[in-house]
Amino acid sequence: MRSKNTKYWAGALSLCAVGAFLMGFYLIALVSKNNDSLGGAGEAKEASVPEFARKWLDAFALSDPQGRRQILAEALEADTRRQRPADSLSEDERYYRARALDLITLAQDYSSSQDFIERGVAGNPGPRMLYHWVIGMIGEEDMPQLYGMLNDETYAAKWRNISTVIGSVSHNPVSADVLWDFFQRDDSEYFSAERSSLLGKIYALAWIGKIGSPQYDQVLQRAATLEGAEEFARNWVNQAEVEQVSSRDAALRHIRSSALKGLIYSQEPENIRFVQQLYEQELENCNTNNTKTKFMSALTDCMGYQDYIEEHGLDFLLMEISVSPPLRESLASHIRKYSWKSRSF
After folding, report:
1. How many angstroms separate the CA atoms of 312 and 306, rounded?
2. What is the pLDDT at residue 4?
3. Tell me, what's the pLDDT at 82?
4. How far apart are CA 43 and CA 235, in angstroms?
5. Residue 297 class from Cβ within 10 Å (0-12 exposed, 13-18 middle, 19+ buried)?
6. 138 with 171: CB under 8 angstroms?
7. Hey, is 98 helix, strand or coil?
């Protein structure tokens, strides 16, 4: 009896083993077939937005503008070889591809960084100083020339462009010092409606944060307060009533907003927490008074920027906001999340 049972169970186990083997073989064949049927579509998905984004980040990591352009050109060539119809590209893919084409076309128009500085940055009218253009054409080695131009009254009408280029490209603490001097000095005689350096002066605070010089962390935190903004801009703020900035109070709001952006651009955890705390305080203030303040608008933008940076990176944010308005939905949705109406109670 025991012998028959033993034979029975041995046979059953053998059948199970054979069945498991056949099932495994079937699954392997099925997966292989599915992979074969996906073919180029699978490759396109792998090589589309994520890979293209990585190419951009690789390019941004280089200090050599020519190297940046080369990486982008290679990415575009690879994208073109896939020969996918335009309607099959995602919104992000179309957007970043267009920005790369912008930069490569621009590089064909200017023979060198020196040519771009003379005809682009200091030209009249010259192109807009879009972030991806600037970092694709200018390198750290060009900073000394730009420092001189920012202190030369001949270029007063282009000081906004020059400060934007310095802040976009440089990671040198000397650049932060140069922009801080530009922010504080009194050159209000150039605050004209048509050729104002005022907005460039105000936004220098944001670029100081992006450059990442730790000695300015406390300065930017102080500048984000009304008292600090008044203190640091005392040399010129009383003359800050021009077409672009309608009053002294408006100038102070812009200064505080620029300082907040600088704190976010620095990506220092302490600075980010400082902005978050200000946001929570101002949110409570808006809820208490049942009204939205202009300072709340600035804080809302910065909180949305931080979310976007965490998802995409700082370089992508700076490219987005230099090209906009209008903001693409991918950024606008982050900002809306922190609006007073969405957080009020």
Report:
1. 10
2. 47
3. 61
4. 59
5. middle
6. no
7. helix
pLDDT at 301 over 80: yes
Cα distance between residue 309 and residue 329, in whole Å: 15
Rg, the chain, Cα only = 28
The token duo for 125 is 């009218």
Answer yes or no: are the C-beta atoms of 304 and 114 closer than 8 Å. no
The Cα 331–Cα 325 span in angstroms is 11
Which residue intervals of the chain are DSSP H helices?
Answer: 2-38, 40-46, 49-61, 65-81, 91-109, 113-115, 131-137, 143-150, 159-169, 173-184, 198-211, 217-223, 226-232, 248-266, 269-289, 294-312, 314-323, 329-336, 340-343
Quick one: pLDDT at residue 64?
A: 65
Cα–Cα dist 239/141, whole Å: 35
What values do phi and psi take at 315, rounded to 5?
Answer: -60, -40
| Residue recorded with tokens 């792998």 | 46
**Token pair 């230099």 in the structure block, residue:** 322
CA distance 209 to 230: 19
Query: How many other CB atoms sit within 10 Å of the CB of residue 235?
Result: 13
Q: Residue 153, Cα to own-chain centre: how many angstroms? A: 31
Q: Please give the Cα distance from 71 to 58 (Å, whole number).
A: 8
Decide: residue 97, CB within 10 A, 0-12 exposed, 13-18 middle, 19+ buried. Answer: buried
pLDDT tens per residue across span 187-200: 888 876 445 678 89
